[in-house]
Amino acid sequence: MSTSTARTAPPGASPGASPGASPGASPAPRRAPAGPVTQHDVVTRAPARVALALARVGTAVVFLWPFADKLLGLGYATPRERAWLAGAAPTQGYLEHGVQGPLAGAFTATSGPVTDWLFMLGLLGVGLALLLGVGLRAAAVSGGLLFVLLWLSQWPFSPGSTNPVVDQHVLVVLVLAVLATTLAGDTWGLGRRWAALPAVRRAPWLR
């Protein structure tokens, strides 16, 4: 005769149910994996999303226009004979003669072809990211760093400055931060498709 005690399931319990489960209780449903956060989750009003999209496109032009002007010499800030494609240097003249303040020597020391490439690629990369609505976090960091350096190269604390605290360079940095944190690339951009890419989902900083 076996010495083991047989356990009987309580009435109404399904076979294999745990002893502590309530009679008639069904297993908890599995939740589907959450998708990436979209701008609709962050900005709930449609007019605000449109305003942010307009700000994103406008800020893209802030970066893409000087790139095109310095590359081709469109005759605005850069005459045709001083275009990069004509053999001129986009940044060397400014770094050698246009910087001001106690950091002028440090900026002048960076003058050279490498700085030209970094500056032009920075303008192009940030501008395209803003225009397409992808990689706004990286664009905000890169573009913000570029404009902070431009701000310091003008040394706004000198006498005669129009505003020693907030000028157009600082405003661009602030706008970039707003665009990145509000996922402004989702409206009139490729932000949602970009966020759904496996690489971007694994590395949210690419968002």
Description:
- The protein has helices at 39-42, 46-72, 92-97, 104-109, 113-132, 136-154, 168-181, 191-195, 198-202.
- By secondary structure, the protein is mainly alpha-helical.
- The protein has one domain.
- Helix 2 (46-72) crosses helix 7 (168-181).
- The longest helix has 27 residues, at 46-72.
Question: Could you write a compact summary of the structure shown?
Answer:
By secondary structure, the protein is mostly helical.
Key features of this structure:
207 residues; mainly alpha; 9 helices; 51% helix; globular
Tally of distinct domains: 1
By DSSP, the count of extended strands is 0
What string gives the helices and strands in order? HHHHHHHHH
Oligomer: single chain
pLDDT < 50 stretches: 1-9, 13-22
Radius of gyration: 28 Å
Biggest sheet: strands, sense, closure? none
Strand content: under 5%
Helix content: 40-55%
Instruction: Report how far apart the termini are.
Output: 68 Å
Which shape, going by the Cα principal axes?
globular
What's the helix count? Answer: 9
Q: What is the averaged pLDDT score?
A: 88
Helix and strand composition category: mainly alpha
